[in-house]
Design goal:
Layout lengths: L1 H20 L3 H19 L5 H10 L2 H48 L3
């Protein structure tokens, strides 16, 4: 039983990696809820630490978890940079617009 649940959990991790890479937030939210359900099921069954460790090693669970964490961090950093660049662009546009309004009085005066 633990083996099947860990395999499902690992498959969900792989699907989460794909969802993050494709920016599919809705699918990622669904997958994360499914992962929580599986974690709950794992908590409710009986198994030994050795069983868990053995099956986790067989499916390379730790590596996949680390890969998911890395992909999420990279995407988070990418989004942070986009927000930062958007803020910089917004400030530049605002400064340019303000400069045009303050200098526009020169052209409106009658000579």
């Amino acid at each position: 039983m633990i083996k099947e649940l860990l395999e499902k959990y690992n498959k969900l991790n792989i699907d989460c990696i794909e969802a993050v890479e494709k920016d599919d937030v809705e699918k990622l939210n669904i997958l994360l809820k499914e992962k929580d359900l599986i974690i709950g099921k794992i908590d409710n069954i009986k198994y030994t630490a050795d069983e868990f460790k053995r099956y986790a090693q067989e499916i390379d669970l730790v590596n996949v978890e680390n890969q998911l964490e890395r992909v999420i961090k990279e995407k988070k950093e990418e989004v942070k940079n986009k927000i930062k660049n958007t803020a910089i662009s917004k400030n530049a546009v605002g400064a340019y617009s303000n400069a045009n309004f303050t200098n526009s009085g020169i052209f409106n005066k009658k000579i």
